[in-house]
Amino acid sequence: MTATAAVGAPAERREGREKVTGTARYAAEFSSPGRLFARPVPATVARGRVTDVDASHALGRPGVVAVLTHENAPRLGESDDPTLAVLQGPQVPHRGWFVALVVAESQEAARAGAAVVRVSYDEEPHDVTLSETHPAAYVPDTVNGGYPAVREHGDPEGAFADAAVRVDAGYRVPPLHNHPMEPHASTAHWDGERLTVHTSSQGTTVVRAVLAEMFGLAQERISVVAEHVGGGFGSKGTPRPDVVLAVMATRHTGRPVTVALPRRVLPSAVGHRAPTLHRLRLGADADGRLASLVHEVTTHTSRVKEFVEQAATPARVMYAVPHSRTLHRVVPLDVPTPSWMRAPGEAPGMYALESAMDELAVELGMDPVELRIRNEPETEPDSGRPFSSRHLVECLREGARRFGWTRRDPRPRARAEGPLLVGTGVAAATYPVLVRPSTAAARVLPDGTFLVETNATDIGTGARTVLAQIAADALDVPLERVRIRVGSTELPAASLAGGSSGTASWGWPVHEACRRLAERLTGFPGPVPEHGLIEHADTTGTADAESPYARHAFGAHFAEVAVDTVTGEVRVRRLLGVYAAGRILNARTARSQFVGGMTMGLGMALTEGSTMDAAFGDFSESDLASYHVPAHADVPDIEAHWVEEDDPHLNPLGGKGIGEIGIVGTAAAIGNAVHHATGVRLRELPLTPDRVLSGLLERDRPSV
What we know:
Blueprint: H1 16-21, E1 36-42, E2 48-54, H2 56-59, E3 64-68, E4 91-92, E5 98-104, H3 107-115, E6 118-123, E7 142-143, E8 147-148, E9 150-153, H4 156-162, E10 165-173, E11 185-191, E12 194-199, H5 204-215, E13 222-225, H6 241-253, E14 257-260, H7 266-269, E15 276-284, E16 290-302, E17 323-333, H8 346-364, H9 368-374, H10 392-403, E18 416-417, E19 420-432, E20 439-444, E21 450-453, H11 463-475, E22 482-485, H12 502-522, E23 533-538, E24 552-564, E25 570-580, H13 587-606, E26 612-613, E27 618-619, E28 637-642, H14 661-664, H15 666-678, H16 689-700
Parallel strand pairs: 1-14, 12-13, 16-17, 21-22, 25-28
Antiparallel strand pairs: 1-5, 2-4, 2-6, 3-5, 7-8, 9-17, 10-15, 11-12, 11-14, 15-16, 18-19, 19-24, 20-21, 20-23, 24-25, 26-27
């Protein structure tokens, strides 16, 4: 590799060998003398108050050291996130809320002790059922991301009533769960007056700030490390109860403590994608030009903390329409607090919008690719700002070419292979470009190598590798001469890995620091001193500056499915995604991220779904035995490609986030393909065999 060809090349992951050989250590694997293990005890009522905790049986178990409850746990300071106020009082806001913590000499002893803690409750009536007509529904001021809950332009009701062709449909997306490969875990210990925490987090800078606030410590006395993170998909974006419990337990016992949350408690303890109920109304003229778009969403939040999935916001970006309304309603229920999950808002919102666009294409008798192209806007519909770049049309056309779309017979049920009905579908995708301020340092050492440091978090996306490529190009040196350090609060502060903002946010100061160092070395007169030469960069005030442009990534998804009319089973045969995501900084890791997102979208469409048990107030699918993520046999031939996009209005690298856009349109493309195959329109995910069979039976039932 030449000194100037690092960015864009398919460089291998720097940490890959560590991961496949087992030498990469995760949060629960940092052992130290005297380490203890702790296991939380979740509440077994959906709402109420703890009246007694009998810990005697647990304390009598071999190896059990302590049992923390709201009566003896360390007191915590105030936090902006009330989901972290664990063991601070007797109130139980939802089933699964932690009411005790058993600390023991081994994981086995902690588990056995937790099983025999006896908790008594004063149970209260609960409500966990979401509906569009729930009397407690309200319109919040803002939704997740700070977006206004309501936006309206023109006269959407009048334009819809006057439209030549109309679609009015409801869509349902169930609760979904993140389920990263590495469950949430933290190991905490004191070294004199200094607290060190190893945690599975998408951003240790935030974790340190929250721990300092809650435990009354100066941030300088806390080190938080996340050297390797086994996935998060948003659920590790901010501190979760595991890290608070680990610090509480180490303060109480004076010994190192590891808290690794069992997978079965994750749905109730670390957030979930809230269910969303959608109503889409589209009105168009006979030529397919949209006149009216109304997207209304109802979702739930907990009584602990308001979190509103911003599922109607993508409709503000996608299509040229003079009359529109996008609105969110939220219902507070006795449920765990929802939170971020890959492409929050965009994933469920675009499923509904792109399904409705397909329905409109059917009503019009128009090709669904051409319908989208016909409604391409010149500026962002909601704000009127020009797009920094927008190549959705190119994605649609290139995807159609690669997929062989022109060979498609548009008639439903036109292609059969014995009991199988085969169909194809398309959907568009969008995701906002997010960039956050970060800092970095670049140092040249006497041996001619370079050390670049920033507190980025590599959650499995290949951040170390891409940052090294950015540094190598800015320094104009071979990639092998650059070392990268990430994942510790001892490094220059950086933003969290979330919102597909990581590389754009961290790469900016890395580029600047390395560029300054290269300029300094150009005129440097003598040998590099023993301690090296260092340059710093901080993008505060630039990365977070207001942009006059609407900045988004776009994509197009194409799917081919086979539907078994005997069993109702849907099998995806082909998935294709084509993206316009700025400059691709590493072809290998980018393709991996696109394919990973599409695989997650396949799960959203066909296998993943959770139900809230109304009687018990609990998620029925709480582990990987009942919550079905796609397995190897479920993943078909998946292709990911991109169009070249030069966008000078983003950051010095011209890159957009790629971690989330892959999921956004996949479920709609698959659902649209199922309709094309069967002639049955299913509007509730996932498309399980029972739903497909019911739809087929209803369609084929003779009319009376």
